């Protein structure tokens, strides 16, 4: 390269004067420096009037990737709008159109997302890259297309908004995952020792404060037995389960409880391949213990050693090459999976979209089998893309059968960790809400979080993901979390524990009275568990309320505690467990237990439930305490009299009135008698004769009697 001169260049008189003037200006006070325009829109919450299909979401237009795109349906008009998180001074909008571009469109600005002003408009656009210099202050920016240039919809690779933020502190995305997320790679020393250390602490800590997440980087691990205790999750960090292989076991057993697995709650396994040492892995769990995206290269035993009692459970998006041995499991739900075979059934085993599932045969054996799952979308999960953490957000599937990952890469999109606020113990609810308002998603690291104000999820496609059964506790009687009337929110992997002051509810999805259709991009609630009492006194009027239409609730356990601390008919009072007001809501894997009145109230139209497990409240002091007018007891599952269409498959309710065994329950299920209201494969059981049912549903079905715990069943209703 050319050598610089050893001598400074000579300055002309004019140049010298300019230099001197510049030096003087440095010494003089002046206007503050102006920040250079920056890209404000990337990764921000974005919504659109429509999308062509699941592979072209609105979020693809602000992801910084020119290979992904948003595309609309084939109609005029259409719009896409981005929320910048706070008012900003805008200077430029860049639109990178795909072949299907807009001939006529407007760029509009808004302070509140409701009232809009036009910053730019054209009726003669030619596609390509449109760069538009604009002026104005706004939080929301919208591209409003009024005329398409092609027969297709509107399609944008990138929608970029530049400007300067309005000032004030902003929260950073990303960062480390904290001390209770324990990450291994195949070269990590003493992995078994670390697994055993956590298990010793968590094995019997049913109501303890410890929370742990094990993450295994892709690779092969030999000779491990990961025993999983309370509030412990184990996951692989590959995009596919087969990216992370353990030549060994992931084990849940019940030695801590004398071989009884009916209290093996609150733990999970996800996204791993296992080669069990003796050919069969043991996963002896009960409620709130999901087994997701797992590949067991052998068999899976769902019973504890010695075949003691068990009351689980849930499998989804998994492949078990050998037999799933149900053995002593009273009930189980398996969804969108592949199994070699299934062995045994006690009361209620339900399958939807499961390759290799046993044929429909309820009640003997008690198998309810649906060929496909009506609508499903797998749970978001953390994975490594090279050295970068990302969260994969799976796409919606309709009439799914088999795993989402068995035929190549799963369908969906990825969010970098930089688009998440990483929540750590001690974080306040105000800070969490600030992060949500900024447009960040939330990733809860393992811990217990007291919230003194409601967490408000107001943006479409927000992901709230918990690691290690992160737990929210509402203080001062607030609702822990509310979701707005928006598309595509994903709530997954956390526990809400009622506080001692009565809350009106613990989780609400959507506002009351909404009429918005969310069918194209529904909200999903997955592995979100509700607890009232047990860890201490807790009270709420209702556990979970679903107002938004089309919501999918995929595996929840909503539990009013029957044991632990703070337990009593009035001490942990909670009249209602799960209330559905929205239309077209689907529940897959619904567990609701022990509420003082109705465990499930379904008021919305066209609701569907695939698998339901219930126990009525053990601790009712007498018949009068549960009397519902002239009806003996409150149904475990009540469909409102106004409903015209509803359907359920594989639903069971059990009673164990141990305080007053003479209590009679008129029925487990109550529904209007209409052609559109249908139930398949219902059962009620008296556990050891502690209380009895007069009927199964309404006045249909034989009464239970005696102490034999023999179910009374109804195959079809009406």
From TrEMBL:
<keyword id="KW-0732">Signal</keyword>
<dbReference type="InterPro" id="IPR000421">
    <property type="entry name" value="FA58C"/>
</dbReference>
<dbReference type="InterPro" id="IPR012334">
    <property type="entry name" value="Pectin_lyas_fold"/>
</dbReference>
<feature type="domain" description="F5/8 type C">
    <location>
        <begin position="33"/>
        <end position="164"/>
    </location>
</feature>
<protein>
    <submittedName>
        <fullName>Discoidin domain-containing protein</fullName>
    </submittedName>
</protein>
<dbReference type="Pfam" id="PF00754">
    <property type="entry name" value="F5_F8_type_C"/>
</dbReference>
<feature type="region of interest" description="Disordered">
    <location>
        <begin position="699"/>
        <end position="718"/>
    </location>
</feature>
<dbReference type="InterPro" id="IPR059186">
    <property type="entry name" value="SACTE_4363"/>
</dbReference>
<feature type="signal peptide">
    <location>
        <begin position="1"/>
        <end position="35"/>
    </location>
</feature>
<dbReference type="InterPro" id="IPR008979">
    <property type="entry name" value="Galactose-bd-like_sf"/>
</dbReference>
